[in-house]
Amino acid sequence: MKKTWVYLSLFVFALSMTACNSNDPKKIKLESEDDKTFYAMGYMLGGNLQRLSLSDKELSALYKGVAQASKNEKSEVDMATYQNRIQEVFKARMDKVAVKEKEAGVAFLEKFVKDEGATKTASGLAYKVIKEGTGATPTAEDVVEVHYHGTLADGTVFDSSVERGKPISFPLNRVIKGWTEGVQLMKEGGKTKFVIPADLAYGEAGAPPKIPGGATLVFEVELFKVTKAADAAKAQAAPAPTAAPKAKKK
């Protein structure tokens, strides 16, 4: 629960920059660069509270607590009691969201298999070949160079090397299980769409703020190159080339 406390404390800090000056954050105008910076901080950190599914009344209670604490006013509740309650609420809310996400993910994956003729493996991974490759097939220990586009089941993009315009290379056994299994089904030059259930991705914890707990992930992966583990190790061990000698001045 340490991360929970970090997220909450940072979020409360960001809220304190606005709550003291207005009862309605929607009325705050972002005029200076500092205003925009703190807004960006609050927006980023606030994303970690999405998993709590807070109601407007609960958000108002949160604002009230921030405002009173920042003004050194007396708490309206016994803090010793509710400090323990905070962790209980966080866990219960996150577990509830994770269960809901997983249920929606199961339905999404089954629809993908049924409607798009995708294949489902024994582990629960589903995939559909978009373009068949003709080159080498990687093992889990190999280094792969890929382009990928990752979304949640609702289409929200959380990460994409395609959008960044730069392929990425990594050892295949150092990523989520769904990737390790799935990319081994590909060949160089191929492109495949994967639907990865939470158990093969980031589990019930998720990867906040972009990936909620229990989330099913969708990836389109294009495999450019496979470097065998032994060759990758040799390349890393090889000494860096020396700079070319400069011509002597006459």
Brief digest:
The chain is of the alpha+beta class.
Protein architecture, described:
With 250 residues, the chain is α+β, with helices and mostly antiparallel strands. The protein has seven helices and seven strands; from the N terminus they run H-H-H-H-E-E-E-E-H-E-H-E-E-H. Strands 1, 2, 3, 4, 5, 6 and 7 form a seven-stranded antiparallel sheet that branches. Strand 1 and strand 2 form a beta hairpin. The radius of gyration is 24 Å and the shape is elongated. The protein starts with a helix and ends in a 13-residue tail after the last helix. The relative contact order is 0.13. Mean pLDDT is 83; it is low at 16-22 and 240-250.
Please give a handful of descriptors for the protein shown.
single chain, 250 residues, alpha+beta, Chitinase A, domain 3, seven-stranded antiparallel sheet, 7 strands, elongated, disordered C terminus
